[in-house]
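step=encode ok
step=design start
structure_in=
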């Protein structure tokens, strides 16, 4: 019984313990569940807060991105709008200009239409007047025919036949008289016509001789250089011809151009200038003028040295430098095809030999013989004969009276002042008369070109004139301040008429008047 009670007690205690454990477990689970639920709620709240923050951030980022894109779109729209506005402005300007031009053209067209209507009206009036005059003329002719028929007692056909017979008889008589007169004139002018034909034949062959002394040839490194010498639209070749007074002939001759001009001094300047331009490579109008001026200055010094060397060769050591310069220029002057400087040296040698043989004063004789043609270096620039110009020039440079008298007498214009003067004249004749020394055709040709330039230079406002193309063309530079464009036209006509009345020449001569205005400023 006690055991049962104990058993029951133990069982009740176990049950109580089990109930307590169960209750503890349940309480623990509830607490754990409550803690888990609390932590879950807290985590949910945390996640919710994080989600809200992230959503807010993303919302802000999206808003900022949207604002940025909207700003970019606005900027791009503004840029496109500005470009279109500028294009519209440009188009508006272009359209405005076109509208102005169209307005001007419309005004011009209206003016032209008015003029055409006026001309048409005038034409109609003239046509009416002409028709009225023609009708009146026909009426008068009919009245006159009727009156003539009444007075003559002939019909129109009978009068016409009678008139034709009378005209035929008169024509036959006039033709017979004309034939007789022509035959008589032919017999009278046969000799003159023959001379003219011979002269024309000589004239046609003359260029072969003139070419030898009126042209120079400049060799080119290549044919491409011809284009550079000609220049764009011919500017370079025109600048060369104007600056030198020489005609440049650029033809199919390979590797060469031809310089044509009757003055050898000008041709030499042109030749040296072109050679320097080719070597330098810079060929344009300003450079051409610079090189030509430089060549002129250097050639002046060269001719002075040539004159000094010729005088030194003859034993003459006290001449003025200006005399040396003019004597050197005679190297580029010919007389009847004979080089004048060589001629002067030759005359001096011959006269000196004769003076020594005769026991006369060789120094005065040689000096006068050497200087006797110095005036030929100036006669193209001054009025007067080369003898008068030379004597006056030597007198200004303090030459002795004996030399002056001998120079003045070398063409027998004055009585012989001394035996030395006679020797100078004799030596001059010997040098000129020796076979092959001279050609008459060249001197007459040069004189004709000089007269051609002289006629042009005599007109007011002419600055320079150059005879080119063997005298077939003359180019005249005028002063733009004194001669207008209209006056230049009349000047060319006046010079042409003057040449026709004063010169005799074959073919025709082209007269070109050049008026040029230059504005020069320097950039500093």
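sequence_out=
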């Amino acid at each position: 019984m006690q055991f049962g009670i104990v058993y029951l007690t133990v069982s009740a205690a176990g049950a109580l313990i089990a109930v307590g454990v169960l209750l503890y477990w349940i309480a623990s689970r509830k607490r754990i569940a409550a803690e888990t639920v609390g932590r879950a709620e807290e985590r949910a709240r945390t996640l919710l807060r994080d989600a809200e923050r992230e959503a807010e951030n993303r919302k802000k980022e999206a808003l900022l991105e949207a604002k940025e894109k909207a700003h970019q779109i606005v900027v791009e729209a503004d840029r496109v709008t500005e470009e279109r506005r500028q294009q519209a402005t440009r188009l508006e300007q272009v359209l405005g200009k076109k509208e102005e031009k169209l307005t001007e053209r419309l005004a011009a067209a209206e003016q032209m239409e008015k003029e055409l209507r006026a001309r048409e009206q005038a034409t109609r009036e003239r046509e009416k007047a002409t028709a009225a005059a023609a009708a009146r003329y026909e009426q008068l002719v009919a009245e006159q025919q009727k009156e003539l028929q009444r007075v003559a007692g002939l019909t129109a056909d009978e009068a016409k036949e009678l008139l034709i017979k009378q005209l035929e008889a008169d024509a036959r008589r006039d033709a017979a008289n004309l034939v007789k007169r022509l035959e008589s004139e032919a017999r009278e002018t046969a000799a003159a016509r023959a001379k003219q034909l011979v002269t024309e034949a000589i004239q046609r062959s003359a260029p072969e001789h003139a070419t030898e002394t009126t042209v120079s040839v400049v060799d080119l490194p290549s044919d491409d250089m011809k284009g550079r010498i000609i220049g764009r639209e011919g500017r370079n070749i025109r600048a060369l011809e104007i600056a030198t007074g020489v005609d440049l002939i650029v033809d199919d001759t390979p590797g060469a151009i031809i310089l044509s001009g009757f003055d050898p001094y000008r041709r030499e300047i042109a030749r040296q200038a072109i050679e320097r331009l080719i070597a330098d490579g810079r060929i344009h109008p300003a450079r051409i003028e610079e090189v030509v001026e430089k060549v002129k200055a250097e050639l002046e010094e060269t001719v002075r040295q040539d004159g000094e060397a010729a005088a030194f060769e003859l034993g003459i050591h006290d001449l003025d430098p200006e005399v040396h310069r003019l004597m050197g220029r005679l190297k580029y002057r010919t007389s009847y095809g004979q080089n004048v400087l060589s001629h002067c040296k030759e005359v001096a040698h011959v006269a000196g030999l004769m003076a020594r043989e005769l026991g006369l004063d060789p120094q005065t004789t040689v000096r006068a013989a050497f200087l006797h043609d110095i005036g030929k270096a100036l006669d193209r620039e001054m009025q007067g004969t080369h003898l008068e110009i030379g004597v006056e020039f030597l007198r200004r440079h303090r030459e002795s009276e004996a030399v002056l008298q001998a120079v003045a007498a070398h063409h027998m214009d004055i009585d012989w002042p001394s035996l030395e003067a006679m020797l100078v004249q004799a030596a001059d004749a010997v040098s000129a008369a020796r076979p092959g020394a001279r050609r008459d055709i060249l001197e007459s040709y040069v004189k004709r070109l000089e007269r051609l330039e002289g006629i042009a230079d005599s007109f007011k406002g002419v600055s320079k004139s150059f005879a080119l193309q063997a005298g077939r063309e003359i180019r005249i530079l005028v002063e733009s301040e004194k001669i207008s464009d209209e006056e230049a036209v009349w000047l060319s006509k006046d010079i042409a008429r003057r040449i026709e009345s004063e010169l005799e020449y074959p073919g025709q001569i082209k007269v070109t008047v050049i008026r040029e205005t230059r504005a020069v400023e320097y950039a500093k």
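step=design ok
step=annotate ok -> Residues 35 and 41 are 10 Å apart (CA to CA).
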